[in-house]
Amino acid sequence: MDILLIGNGMYSTGRGTEEFGTILPAIVEYQRSSKINFNITVAGTNEEHSIAAKDKYNQLSQLTGVNLNISFYPNHVKTLPKSYLDIINSDNKPQCAIIVVPDNLHYEITKECLKAGIHCLVVKPLVLSTTEAIELTNLAEENGLYGAVEYHKRWDKSNLILKESVEKDIGELLYCIVEYSQRKSIPSKTFSQWSANTNVLNYLGIHYIDIMYFITKATPKRVMAIGQTNWLKKKQIDTPDSIQCIVEWINDNGGVFTQTLLLNWIDPETSTSMSDQKIKIIGTNGRIEADQKERGIRVNIDNSHLAQPNPDFCRPYKNMDGLYSWRGYGIESVVDFLSDVENIKSGLTNIEDLNNKRPTFRDSIAVTSVLEAANISLNNNGEWVDINI
Prior knowledge:
Layout: E1 2-6, H1 10-13, H2 23-33, E2 39-43, H3 47-64, E3 69-73, H4 83-88, E4 96-99, H5 106-115, E5 119-123, H6 130-142, E6 147-150, H7 157-168, E7 173-183, H8 185-190, H9 200-216, E8 219-228, H10 231-234, E9 242-250, E10 256-267, E11 275-283, E12 286-291, E13 315-318, E14 324-327, H11 329-346, H12 364-378, E15 385-386
Parallel strand pairs: 1-2, 1-4, 2-3, 4-5, 5-6, 7-10
Antiparallel strand pairs: 7-11, 8-9, 8-15, 9-10, 11-12, 13-14
Helix pairs in contact: 2-11, 5-6, 6-12, 7-9, 9-12
């Protein structure tokens, strides 16, 4: 199986950081467990980034003891903004693509991959428009292709406990509160070239909108959102510092409940974790709360501030042989996609069966409709926006 990774930045390879991202370590772990050698191509936009991503892979290979049949493109030209087109239109086009690019590029790139007959995994959000989500869903299904969104929080054990409790114990849902924030460096440094083209709801809040849909399978009915723009504006980045969003959902029996999302991406750099994330769900029979920042580990070292690492998302662990393996729900979500594609290819899995088991494109239509309505409300002083899907 040939794999195309479109995008070679922080989340793909760890480029620009001391770490290795999530996607490349996940591919390494899938190769480790497989008896087949895969061909992987990493497509970026310029040669300088390709060289840096290749260096990241070389370090990763030494740490894990896993060698990939991997190439980095472009490799002989300074810039090639759409290098992925050369690969998907070649005679040896890949079976699947993992698309890890800025939010505003998802639609164009995913559509090109689907037209080329390639199964796709797209980092969240799928797109920012319900019309585009429906179009991509139809295009995938018409061509017999598997389209999934990398909503890795569905694999988080904490959220799986939430889901089971909502299904069995909590009674009729009344309301949900989410608090989710990240450090200032994310919009102002790490993603400074494109953060003004999106917002914290699209980038962070979408995870918990999807989690609510995943847990309840309810239908979104209306949305309102307001935001505040202060610190980022002073940095010449035209996007809100924080957003508060309320979603009204209706479940299968006609019961109505709300979800309130309180979001920002201007936490201090001294925050103990990159992400501060909490969720509470209240029902007629009780409540369940998950502090998904407090994972039980604290590290306090001289000349460094207190850190609270998340051992469950995507971390390296040293084994008895002195080599590292990457584990966590971020790894599992990517590995499961690659496994699904291989099973589809071998006839062991039907694409239709995955609609109720994975965050597929079709599964993402409701989630995208919430995002689109919230952005409309945000631009209209917090007016309620109805959803009809």
